[in-house]
Design brief:
- The protein is mostly helical.
- The protein has one domain.
- It is 48% helix and 0% strand.
- The longest helix is centred in the first third of the chain and has 14 residues.
- The radius of gyration is 13 Å and the shape is flat.
- The mean pLDDT is 92.
Length: 66
């Protein structure tokens, strides 16, 4: 790990919006990152609504069955 990005807001929506902006603006050259994967998670309708569980990534992001 080369960095940890943390966002805080007075509401869940505000924190998600700040994280989305941070991930969109981050620039790391020379290595692969998981920025696109993280953006896919935080822009997912169910994640934004707080409707997720431990199978969320497999079902909603990777498209598999848990």
């Amino acid at each position: 790990m080369i960095a940890k990005v943390i966002a805080h807001g007075s509401t869940r929506g505000e924190a998600i919006a700040k994280m989305k902006r941070a991930l969109e603006e981050i620039v790391i050259d020379g290595i692969d990152t998981n920025t696109d994967f993280l953006l896919k998670i935080i822009t997912n309708y169910d994640f934004i609504r707080g409707n997720y569980d431990t199978s969320f990534v497999e079902k909603e992001i990777l498209g598999g069955e848990a």
